[in-house]
Description:
Layout: H1 2-6, E1 24-25, E2 29-35, E3 56-62, E4 68-72
Antiparallel strand pairs: 1-2, 2-3, 3-4
Amino acid sequence: MLYRTLQRFPGQVTWRTLELGQEGDLGGLAVEPIPAPGKPPIHLEGSGSSDAGDNIGLLIRDGRTGKRLATVRPPPRSLPP
C-alpha cells in the first residue's frame, strides 16, 4: 500500500539496499545505517531469529555542508563519532 502511494507512475521511486556500517550516497546525502539496541520490531517478534539489522538508526550527512543528523528509535545511550 505504501509503495503504491509513493510510486504514482513508473520510475518515480528508486529503492536502494543499504548495508550496515557502510555509507551510501543518496543524491548528495550520505546515509549510513547503524545497528541500534532494543527488542525486535513487532513484526519480527516470535520469529526465533535475530539480526543486527533488526533495529537500525541512520547517520545522515549533507555532502555539501558536512552537517550531520542521526535518527534512532528508541534513542541509544551513545552513537559512534
